[in-house]
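User: Show me an example of a complex going from sequences to structure tokens.

Assistant: Sure. Here are the input components:
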Amino acid sequence: MKKFISLLTLAALLVGPVFAQPAYSGPMPVPPADTRSDTLRRAYLDRVREVLVWYAATAKPDKPETIGTGQIVAKLALHQDAALVSQRIIELMKQPQTGDMFWMFPWAAISFLGRDQLSPAAKAAIRDAWRTYFPMRGDTENHWAMYYSSLYLMAELYPDDPADSWFTGKSSAENRAEAKGYLIHWMDLATTIGQGEFNPTHYIGEYAIPMLYLATWAKDPEMRIRGHMMLDWLMAELADNTLNGVLRGANARTTEESVLERWNGLSSFFSWTMFGNTPPPAAYGGFGIFFAGAAENYRLPEVIYQVAVDRSQDYIQRDLKRTRRRWRYSDQFMPPIYKTSYMRRDYAVGSYQGGQSDPIQTHVWDVTWAVPDPRGVHNTLFSMHPYASTEVLQMYFTEQPDGLIDSLAGQGKPSFGVPDKILGASPYERVFQDRDTVVALYDIPAGTSYPRINGFFSKDLTHVTEDKSGWIFAQGGHTYLAYRPLAPFHWEHLLGYRQLPSAHGYKWERIDKGEQGDKLLVSEQLRNGTIVQAASADEFKSFEAFQAAINALPLEFRLEPVPVVRLTTLRGQRVAFTYGQAPVVNGVPLDYTKWKLFEGPYLNAEKGSRRLTITHGRLKRVLDFNTLTITDSVTP
Amino acid sequence: MPKKKITLALLSWCALLAASLAAAAPLHDLYLCASNSRGTRVIGFKDTSLNGVYRREADGSFAHLGLNHPMTLSVSFDPRDARRFYVASLSGILRTQDGGQTWRVATDWDITEPKSVVVDPNHPDTVYAGVPDGFIVSHDRGLMWVRAEHGLPDRGKYTQVVQVDRTHAGRVLIGCETGIYLTEDGAKSWRHVFTCAATVEDLQQSPHDPLFWLAVTQADGALQSQDGGLTWTKLAGVPSEHALYNVAFDALNPERLALASWTYGLLTSEDGGRTWGERNAGLPVPHRVWRTAIDPDTGRLYAAVLDQALYVSDDFGRTWKAGGMEGSRITGFTFVPRAAR
């Protein structure tokens, strides 16, 4: 399964030596009080320049190995050292090429940035590599977004070249047509039935960068505006789903690191660049430089900025998404995902209903609380069923069954086949969310790997209290939390992963941080459940008052023959939820068939509409893929 | 002498004769699909291993042909001109018309990860391919591809293997997630001829009797058909608890068959499939045999042991020796008549 990638590791490889970066190691950024458009624009360009300058400074002329694609992009964007860069490109092109679509988009960027700077020999060397090197197309939507955007742009840059000058064996015109066909197909899916790899903590870059490149360099006006509109779409979703810049759950794809340290993902690079409200990750997330190289060509709409930074009002957002393609062992090809998000100043609660959106890296629900500085903080609480099976991998991957699970660790996914994992979804979990209450029910068939529920309890929680009522109370930041396991449990240390040197693939060792580390609440009953409620500390006189309020709420549950919960939430909602049935709120069953593509105060779109309306206050932007128009308006 | 013994003696003599002739000049070229990254390749990471299609050279070594692609699974040749061949790869169907010097991704964006590609030997402009979401066909040597799925289910048509009946143009069997499907009209329509619990991994037609077919599956063991694939029965004596990956006939000896499996290693039969035994002694442990093949010229038995090497046996698995391709993951064997070169 060739296709898995640890983006943090890749980032490190791309970057080379890491040294202090101003924004990464500096104080928490504060969104400016002056939100005039030109002020915001200046701040955005300053951040972009920081990335470019930092990368350019890592390139040492006397050490060619320090000049990789990131450094070349930086220098070309800054119009520095064209001769040195040209020489280095010729050297690099003499080496065996590798990296597939991760090779394509940097070299596409370099080709465009270097049009008026690189020597003819350097340009020819790059161009020839698009004949001699055969990058794999990959097997996921992010792969295809990178592959086809890059191929499209290069085929436009060299518009009349014959088939034998391209690795595909197709002419420039054929490559353009194929690439355009895929990209429009993907945009159609995303704007009618929802994104597949939705709200990804890392893969956001693998969509945003190609879309920026289309918006910047496509000659075809249709593809240029499509790129621009999709980038707006992605940034609007990011804005709507971040708490002070931190992208929290649910996520179609995230990683072992980001699911705990919620800030630590490439998504924070985009929050920092666009909104200026959180620090960027180390080395700007690795891929940040490839966005920065063309970032001056994108202007974030003010309405999206306001959606990102305004947390003065609580809001509920419901979205429609879809799973990754299921090739087999499923009745549906891309089943719908129903996503709920509740955002408040102090915390966010997010979840989705609909099963496994991805076989390995999905994160279904959590409560994430706001912290003054998110770096190093595990500001989240959730439970999950650690499910692992060959069948589910074969559902999404066209692989033979044997060795599939074992191979994942060697390919950078250490936790899929371990029982104490905290990343992944299960077909035996059903989740319902009403504002800041989540009910997760589990009905795990005997013999399933693994027969347990893992509840994540962060090292950063305070006042963790096991109440005699059965609730576990805790505080995270300015948020009070109540966690109710529905079956007996015990506590375990959550072991981390440390990567070991390896000549072939990844190798890992587990590390135990003892009582200083995170903990797992482990419940080994197959029919099981978790209830979580959250509230702002401001809502109660004291932590004890919060506990008393939770304990006073009506709650009934049973686990046999299937889990059933009936409760009244802190917000006064009467919820009845039976595993395998539609949740009932105040006597009314929830009808997911009426779910819209986006529904909330800021983002709205009808299913199938290809039209997203972004609003905040008096500001409105409409992205209409039917007419390929962007319409801004300000309500009087 | 009983008739059967005479037949066996004649076949043995033929085999010896063929083997001696083959030693001088093999009648077939052997092509492999192989990757050399030991299963740890990660997209986006540095990988300078050489992968793709290999051809056996006169000295027994394997030479790489042109395109370095880490995920190739199946190769099929135009019988009129073996310089034209098709490769099922992660990137789509790849086609070369000059023996691998130049290539074209023959399929468009909407085809991903074909698992199997086969040229119809009786109508070689027609090429069939099984894909994860069904089945496609080209009637113009791979230039244009169309879906051909009438009769296949909406779900359950994941297609792992395609085989063309060499005796009838347009008669094709495919192994899918939900079983075996048959077309007799060039994929205009399909009918379900066998139901499986999980994916059918391989289908092969006997070189001796065109009505005799074998199939292996992920969860239903091995299957046989005596009527050209119309009906199937389970092959007794073959374990079915774990996946079987492919099956091979010996073109020189109809009694000899071989099966490859990660769990069981190499299974062979020397009585036409009535009894089976493991032939793993001498193979690396664990003996994860990803593919097997039998040389039609010599009867040499091949076992591709996952990420280890290609192993060869000239006594049908009783003893083994390394046959090159160290560290490789071989995903396909194809023997091509030299006459087509």
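The lines above are the inputs; the final block is the predicted structure for all two components together. Residues 603-634 of chain A form one domain.
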